[in-house]
Recover the amino acids of this structure.
């Protein structure tokens, strides 16, 4: 299991359709899209990470 270098929380790495790796929180959440579709997914870790500013400095 990977851990965030910024805050130490356990994260998963997911590959985007563009082939880039994206860190996400482990928890799976259920959301409804604007089209009314119910989908399960992860929250991007940079959305919840208290150290997220480190990711934006690139
Ligand atoms: Zn973090």
């Amino acid at each position: 299991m990977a851990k965030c270098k910024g805050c130490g929380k356990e994260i998963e790495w997911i590959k985007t359709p563009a082939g880039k790796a994206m860190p996400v929180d482990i928890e799976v959440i259920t959301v409804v899209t604007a089209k009314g579709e119910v989908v399960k997914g992860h929250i991007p870790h940079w959305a919840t990470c208290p150290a997220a500013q480190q990711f934006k400095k690139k």
Q: What stands out?
A: Residues 4, 6-7, 9, 45, 49, 51 surround zinc ion (CB under 6 Å). The first helix runs from residue 45 to 48. The chain is about 5% helix and 45% strand. Helices lie at 45-48.
